[in-house]
Automatic annotation (TrEMBL):
InterPro entries: SusD-like_N (IPR033985), SusD_RagB_dom (IPR012944), TPR-like_helical_dom_sf (IPR011990)
Signal sequence residues: 1-17
Recorded GO CC terms: cell outer membrane
Residue span(s) of domain RagB/SusD: 355-489
Location relative to the cell: Cell outer membrane
Keyword S-adenosyl-L-methionine in annotation: no
Domain SusD-like N-terminal: 75-218
Superkingdom of source: Bacteria
Protein name stated in the entry: RagB/SusD family nutrient uptake outer membrane protein
Family: Belongs to the SusD family.
Cross-referenced Pfam families: SusD-like_3, SusD_RagB
Keyword vocabulary terms for this entry: Cell outer membrane, Membrane, Signal
Length: 489
């Protein structure tokens, strides 16, 4: 598919804020004086934004913190030290995972700003031009949404960075970051098409913009029971539901099947190609040394017992989500995996994104689905209940659609707090390994309690109230005198 390839165009890969060694004319790139002239240039610049997403969602940048900094996964103690430090909440400003979130997001923001700045001047079809800018604003909003949830207020850079002058930008307030996200998504939803066909499947659509905005409102509401954003989140989610082009697959596992990329349950996904432009969700998360994947499993982290045991026997999602045993291809013996066995070779693994057709390590081709229709249903249920001081009939209908597919009985008779608890639990089970858990815990004010309760394998997390935000990376602090570090770091 066309969308998964990055393009080396002038300024497309630049970090925007706070980078002292910015190279404004990378070797081999076309200069700004000779680029951004034709409709083809505009398309290439737009597609370069999607190429950046492959790195952002491949495994370690957005996914890993949502697994190990929450309560869903445990890194192997013989693995990356920064990963273990994040799990134990010994997070410092030089942690590489923290730095990668920041740098990759701002690289994506620069690519969006290039399109927003350059494409309007290109003579071409006006509808297509507006769509390109809409895609750029959708993706810029997506990156800022990642940043504000991890760091709080961050520098707002809304123009293309073309020189090293005036790059020391102070942090904006959290509300100002959300206002930019909201503005970008409101514009995007009005100019993006409802759907695409052929090689263009996977580009941002109006439904993707509406869905992301619903999630933004949900997060913006936070733990404020009287927030006006609950009603806005419910209304925006309902707009997606009423579009008529999204639905749940009958079987949970079908939402992640290679043949269903860009299918009816996906609002927006990051696409990969098996063995060509792949992800690491197969080799990376298979049991360590397991000869069932190319290059044998890396075993980056194991599934926590608290997550694994949260699924009831009736829940069909459990078998689709985890690898609990495999047959050794040589000995033909069955290897049983466990959440209790300390041996990395015998640990239960996340498996729903594994691509068993890949033949090279890091060659998985399954999409990382950033937002699925089940997320819209659960956003709607939660927001509607919060806006009405308790679950309504429509809120029950929405969550019970998700539960019915999982093979679970419908919920009923819950008060506001019980329904809120049920929603959060449903989200944990439905979206395991989909970069939602840490965000859900922080927005609901439950991070400290959840992390403190997950103490298996000697975690003993040194978590404190200020850990609801990550530290600003030290490199950015050193490069930008206008930055102020988050409290507690």
């Amino acid at each position: 598919m066309k969308l998964i390839y990055g393009f080396s165009i002038a300024l497309a890969g630049l970090l925007t804020a706070c980078v002292p060694d910015l190279d404004l004319n990378p070797p081999g790139s076309q200069s700004v004086g000779t680029y951004y002239k034709t409709a083809s240039d505009a398309d290439a610049a737009t597609l370069s934004m999607y190429g950046q997403l492959r790195a952002m969602y491949r495994d370690e940048i957005v996914v890993t913190p949502n697994v190990i900094a929450a309560d869903d996964g445990i890194p192997f103690l013989t693995g990356n030290a920064d990963r273990v430090a994040m799990w134990r909440y010994g997070i410092i400003s030089t942690n590489t995972f923290v730095g990668n979130i920041w740098s990759n997001a701002y690289t994506g923001i620069q690519r969006s700003n290039v399109v927003i700045s350059r494409v309007p001047a290109i003579p071409m079809d006006e509808t297509t031009k507006k769509s390109y800018v809409g895609e750029a604003k959708f993706l810029r909003a997506m990156h800022y949404f990642t940043l504000v949830r991890f760091f709080g207020g961050v520098p707002l850079v809304t123009n293309e960075t073309t020189s090293l002058d005036n790059v020391n930008v102070a942090r904006a307030s959290v509300d100002d970051v959300y206002k930019l996200i909201e503005s970008d998504l409101k514009e995007a939803e009005t100019v993006l098409p409802k759907s695409y066909s052929g090689n263009n499947i996977g580009r941002a659509t109006s439904g993707a913009a509406k869905g992301l905005l619903a999630k933004v409102y949900l997060t913006w509401a936070g733990a404020n029971a009287s927030s006006p954003y609950w009603a806005q989140a419910a209304a925006k989610a309902k707009e997606v539901m009423d579009m008529g082009n999204y639905d749940l697959w009958a079987n949970y596992a079908d939402a992640f099947d290679l043949k269903n990329r860009g299918g009816k349950e996906s609002l927006f996904e990051v696409m990969y190609i098996t063995d060509l432009a792949g992800n690491n969700f197969t080799t990376g998360y298979a049991p360590r040394g397991a000869p069932i994947v190319p290059s044998t499993g890396s075993g980056i982290f194991r599934v926590s017992k608290s997550l694994f045991d949260s699924y009831t026997a009736a829940d069909k999602r459990k078998a689709a989500t985890f690898l609990t045993s495999y047959v050794h291809p040589t000995t033909k013996a069955t290897v049983t995996l466990s959440t209790d066995d300390a041996d990395p070779a015998r640990a239960v693994s996340f498996w729903k994104l594994a691509d068993l057709t890949s033949t090279v390590g890091g060659g998985g081709g399954k999409s990382f689905v950033v937002q699925r229709f089940s997320d819209i249903l659960l956003i709607y249920a939660e927001a509607l209940s919060e806006a009405n001081n308790g679950p309504t009939a429509d809120a029950y209908t929405a969550i019970n659609r998700v539960r019915a597919r999982a093979g679970l009985e419908p919920l009923s008779g819950l008060n506001r707090q019980q329904f809120k608890d049920a929603i959060l639990q449903e989200r944990r089970l439905e979206f395991a390994f989909e970069a939602n858990r840490w965000f859900d815990l922080t927005r609901t004010g439950r991070l400290l309690t959840a992390v403190a309760a997950e103490t298996s394998y000697g975690r003993s997390p040194a978590i404190k109230a200020t850990n609801v935000a990550f530290p600003i990376p030290q490199r950015e602090m050193d490069a930008n005198s206008a930055l102020k570090q988050n409290d507690g770091y």
